[in-house]
Structures are given as structure tokens and as C-alpha cells.
Amino acid sequence: MSEVRRTQVYLEHALYEQLRRQAFASRRTLSACLRDILAGHFKVGPKRKNAAEALLELSGMVKGDRAPVGRFHDEYLAQALEEELRENRDVP
What we know:
mainly alpha, 58% helix
């Protein structure tokens, strides 16, 4: 990572909760998620992960036997990608 600067951002509660959930789901910090969102918005920084990297990141994220992830992984991945595309369309 290149040089970073510390800053303070005030977020509405709903935005904070969305960011917190995304960070928890991806096992990353709030700051890392926010940097990626901003880099995508301003189209700077590293390129999006390729499909192989995305799949490797998915592995091990789900624990327990709540859903048959192994059997329906394609559907779960497609749903996650659709949600991300919808979220990105909402950003001006």
C-alpha cells in the first residue's frame, strides 16, 4: 500500500452499519473497505480482483452448516455479484 493519511469521516448510522457489515463479511477493516469504495468511485488504485481471486476470498468465509454453500455456490456468487452491481449503479 502506498502512503496513507489519517482522516476522520462522519457517517450517518445507516451508512456506517452497511460499511461495518461489509467489513465483517469480508474480514477486513472499515478503513480498508472504505478505501476500496473510494478508489472504485474515483477509479484509482488497484484493479478489481479477477474471478479466481474472488473465489479464493470466498473460500472459508462461511462456517457451520447453515446453508448448502458447496452445492449452491454458483447461485450465491451470482447473487453477491448482482447485489454489488446494484450498489455500484446507485453511486453517482
